[in-house]
Automatic annotation (TrEMBL):
It comes from the Bacteria. InterPro entries: AraC-type_N. This is HTH-type transcriptional regulator AraC-type N-terminal domain-containing protein. Pfam families: Arabinose_bd (PF12625). The lineage of its organism: Bacteria, Pseudomonadati, Thermodesulfobacteriota, Desulfarculia, Desulfarculales. Residues 7-77 form the HTH-type transcriptional regulator AraC-type N-terminal domain.
Length: 79
């Protein structure tokens, strides 16, 4: 049985992480390349949407939720 609160929290986390990535793209005017996207929860059965949105190595059942940026991306100027 699914826990509605867990599902909502997971959805909100996914939305926030995707939003952060999109905001970085808007601020720099160019694609942002991550080293990986990490999620504390277990890997869903279908990860195609995660692959489409994040397009980077995905890690599930990780210690923390995080977007790991390449060091070269941290020096990208903001528009």
């Amino acid at each position: 049985m699914t826990n509605p609160q867990y599902d909502l929290n997971r959805y909100l986390l996914d939305l926030r992480m995707a939003g952060i990535l999109k905001y970085c793209k808007v601020l720099t005017g160019q694609p942002v390349f991550l080293k990986e996207a990490c999620f504390k929860y277990y890997k869903p059965h279908d990860i195609s949407e995660y692959e489409r949105v994040f397009n980077y190595p995905l890690r599930f059942n990780h210690l923390r939720n995080q977007l790991v940026f390449n060091q070269k991306e941290t020096g990208t100027p903001v528009l």
